[in-house]
Amino acid sequence: MPQAVASEGQKANMITDYILRILGLEVCADTVVGNAMLRGISGGQRKRVTTGEMLVGPAKALFMDEISTGLDSSTTFQIVNSLKQYVHILKGTTVISLLQPAPETYNLFDDIILLSDSHIVYQGPREHVLEFFELMGFKCPQRKGVADFLQEVTSRKDQEQYWAHKDQPYRFVTAKEFSEAHKSFHIGRSLGEELATEFDKSKSHPAALTTKMYGVGKWELLKACLSREYLLMKRNSFVYTFKLCQLAVLAIIAMTIFLRTEMHRDSVTHGGIYVGALFYGVVVIMFNGLAELSMVVSRLPVFYKQRDYLFFPSWVYALPAWILKIPLTFVEVGVWVFLTYYAIGFDPYVGRLFRQYLVLVLVNQMASALFRLVAAVGREMTVALTLGSFTLAILFAMSGFVLSKENIKKWWLWGFWISPMMYGQNAMVNNEFLGKRWRHFLPNSTEALGVEILKSRGFFTQSYWYWIGVGALIGYTLLFNFGYILALTYLNPLGKHQAVISEEPQINDQSGDSKKGTNVLKSIQRSFSQHSNRVRNGKSLSGSTSPETNHNRTRGMILPSEPHSITFDDVTYSVDMPVEMRNRGVVEDKLALLKGVSGAFRPGVLTALMGVTGAGKTTLMDVLAGRKTGGYIGGNITISGYPKKQETFARISGYCEQNDIHSPHVTVYESLLYSAWLRLSPEINADTRKMFIEEVMELVELKALRNALVGLPGINGLSTEQRKRLTIAVELVANPSIIFMDEPTSGLDARAAAIVMRTVRNTVDTGRTVVCTIHQPSIDIFESFDELLLMKQGGQEIYVGPLGHHSSHLINYFEGIQGVNKIKDGYNPATWMLEVSTSAKEMELGIDFAEVYKNSELYRRNKALIKELSTPAPGSKDLYFPSQYSTSFLTQCMACLWKQHWSYWRNPLYTAIRFLYSTAVAAVLGSMFWDLGSKIDKQQDLFNAMGSMYAAVLLIGIKNANAVQPVVAVERTVFYREKAAGMYSALPYAFAQVLIELPYVLVQAVVYGIIIYAMIGFEWTVTKVFWYLFFMYFTFLTFTYYGMMSVAVTPNQHISSIVSSAFYAVWNLFSGFIVPRPRIPVWWRWYSWANPVAWSLYGLVASQYGDIKQSMESSDGRTTVEGFVRSYFGFKHDFLGVVAAVIVAFPVVFALVFAISVKMFNFQRR
């Protein structure tokens, strides 16, 4: 915890240990926090780490927002109780917002602030809040949590049920009216008087005035940040090791291509190969710093939080990232230089070796600092990657290699002089070609060969330019690091606002009938109690229901579901023992997460699956639903008496995941239409399907949101509660018989949770089997369930059975166990149940609740019920479907393509930025290479024209590959959910992802191609324009599909970007621009033929210049353009047909590998 390091004195460790203990984090104290890509602590533990991070500091005022999300009620109570003691003993001030506080947690607070519609409805002592509302005419019912009452009494939908004066007409009281009344209430009056009285300064405390901005001195802060950065580097050692290995591989490839036995020093042309080798070294080292960009962006959210809380100044955070990377730079550059220098045959003088080493060290430092600056300015991955790619494009073109200085237009000369890459490249070639090896004269020449080579490429020939380059690189390194510090200091995160999507039309529709519209919870509770009585009496315990009851449940449903029960007997689940536990001395091979769990879930019965954190609730649900991707499963599972088969079970079941995973760029209605399209039987016609969707939308109260975009959680689109209802609806439109819901009320306030539970109840009442895991339920929500399966730590059940009226069955069972404390009046049975069944209570009482349950009459009744339901009913048939999926392969392809169309069309951050970037690069490169396409008088003119093609192919191609990776990664998460639900096979999804790119890349290629073609001045003939656009289109497509493929074969986007970048450098080297194909050693020439970039340049150059008979000057004398292209590059115009076929084959191959990888690999670990 960083703030503990920034706490004064030697008591930091003691404070940290104490906070770990009260937050229950000792068990994971040495576990990495993790994120979406790295497995770490659980969501509830992460929430507690956030709380602990603030507590370990010496803060006297704490503001805590929704700290209980994902925690069970007993853990929340423990944390809030500790905070209460902290406040009272240390005289601190704490304000906490909670979503669904249990009564015992609510009772810990001294004061209450109730907010509604931007008004403070009540502020004052907790003891007087009910008195205020009773004066206003509203009374909290018995067995109703006060916190739940307070959240609902200001709601238009729920207020009327609490009206106490039944003899008087009810009128809705607005939040503003409550607020005005509070000012005249005695608590409000005393508060107003207190605020109106001037503060007595004699009562102030010295600690109230802070004299220091930070907790400790700046040197201590720097040491803390250095220590953390070093720790992060160690934990992230894979990246640095991979980069080092990548450099070593590239160095070996480079030294074998430019091998000294193949390199000659007898002409300017051969000298150009050495120039290419030096340029490639600069490019490789420059690109090596690109990894800083994604690393910095990924860490910025944490930095902004800690900066704004004054953990440290920005420079203290920025310097360690620079300082600790310097030794790494020496090692990485050392691997490159010491492997390649003598193998390639550069000047043998050892001083020049170390001078080259110095330049490349400075290039790496400059590049790393530049990309850190770009990341801090971009602040978001897509924006930062676009800025980074654009910056690279400018630096690349202005390096002096792609376009020589003498050919740079006067309006771009400033770019040449400020390009750090130019200074690095000039220092490199100056160091080499002014050495002894290059001082001999060629026949008929008045200058040394080295000077001639420098002049032919437009480089500086004076020796002092080496030191100018070194000085400039040092200056740029300092400048970019200073800019990075300024960006961190003054820039804030890019604004991301959660859209508030109003459901007011729904309210207005109902407002006309107050009895029907505002008395929502009353009607729910009535249906709850009626249904509970129906299920808990008579034969319902054995699973049978009367036809009349069944008819009532499914009445009005256009597509009634077929009822199915699920039983599980002695189910076990274990995984291989984690390495961390083996290191602690655990000798077992496997870790058991479920230990012989048994139970039955039946149609029309709403079952709660509960237990403390780590009890195995979600694990059991995943096992039953068939969502586990690894581990060892044992026991018997039956569906309506027949053994469960996952292929058929997926067709009749639904799974509502806790994370609410949906495609962000489709609307609510489109999400449901898509799910129904793929999951309902093809025999159901389109009109019936749409009517069923409308019915489901009404059932889950989504009609008012039908045209709202789903969006990304916490960023835009639907609220958390609305997303929960959408998740339920997406499963319901498949018309499943059995539905699993993982924590459907987590992250919701009491009223939103009630809305979701109403949806769940409505679902059960249609005759479906529904099971929910649940945290922190209020009394109302808990008692809306019919049955409970309670688990203890370690994966064993300790109660399986009905709740009874007011939880009477549950309470009687636990109170019947000797030593268990009786429940207090008004206490939440869910909280009491968890408190009396903890491991600590087991040790105190000397009993094992799992054994008590197994020796009970309830267990024997459940076993009998499981046996009864595990026998098929007379005349019933096992589940059978003629095909694995509901729809045909073609329908799956059409549905997936339809969704991808809307996802792309509504994603301007990807599609629009791609077009804007291409247009900007076209304008920049076009102005740089203005009118250089048709004037080919000497070989450098041809190099310049080819340079424009080379820069476009690499820079736009790589940008395409990088940009598509996050898009595919987001959709892949949705794909895993949809595939597990049996919506489609992998291939239709992959084909849709591939096909949707075709029109977008076509527009990109045409826009870019026409702009650059006109500005550079290539020859305007139909054939040449067609070939140029053809090769650009398939090149961009190749890179796009390569980016998609790299995501499909790797576990996450971070690794895919590292792996894919390894090939860019190799493609660059074998492209034919740095080293022409005829001059590549024969043992590497095969890779040139396997390189898509080489084929792209072949097609572009050969189609433009392969048939031009015009004379030109080359280093070997005068020749034709066609002859030079053929002899120097090995490009033949009459080979264009074959080149076109190959350039089409590359995207096809990458697309096929993408599709096969999507089908074969599943990186989701459950």
Would you spell out the secondary-structure blueprint of this structure?
Elements: H1 2-5, H2 12-22, H3 43-55, E1 61-65, H4 73-90, E2 93-97, H5 103-106, E3 111-116, E4 119-125, H6 129-135, H7 146-152, H8 175-184, H9 186-196, H10 218-235, H11 237-257, H12 268-288, H13 291-308, H14 314-323, H15 325-344, H16 350-378, H17 381-397, H18 413-418, H19 420-433, H20 449-456, H21 465-490, H22 504-511, H23 514-517, H24 520-536, H25 547-554, E5 566-576, H26 579-583, E6 590-601, E7 606-611, H27 617-625, E8 632-639, E9 642-643, H28 646-652, E10 653-656, H29 668-679, H30 686-699, H31 720-732, E11 738-742, H32 750-764, E12 769-773, H33 779-782, E13 787-792, E14 796-802, H34 808-815, H35 829-836, H36 839-845, H37 849-854, H38 857-869, H39 889-905, H40 908-928, H41 939-980, H42 986-1016, H43 1022-1048, H44 1053-1069, H45 1085-1089, H46 1092-1105, E15 1111-1114, E16 1117-1120, H47 1121-1129, H48 1136-1160
Parallel strand pairs: 1-2, 7-12, 7-13, 10-11, 11-12
Antiparallel strand pairs: 3-4, 5-6, 5-8, 8-9, 13-14, 15-16
Helix pairs in contact: 10-14, 11-15, 11-44, 12-16, 12-19, 12-20, 13-16, 13-17, 14-21, 15-16, 16-17, 16-19, 16-21, 17-40, 17-41, 19-20, 19-21, 29-30, 29-31, 29-39, 31-32, 39-42, 40-41, 40-42, 41-42, 41-43, 41-44, 41-46, 42-43, 42-48, 43-44, 43-46, 43-48, 46-47, 46-48
Top keywords for this entry?
single chain, 1166 residues, alpha/beta, Rossmann fold, 4 domains, 6-stranded mixed sheet, 4-stranded antiparallel sheet, 48 helices, 57% helix, 8% strand, globular, repeat, nucleotide-binding, transport, membrane
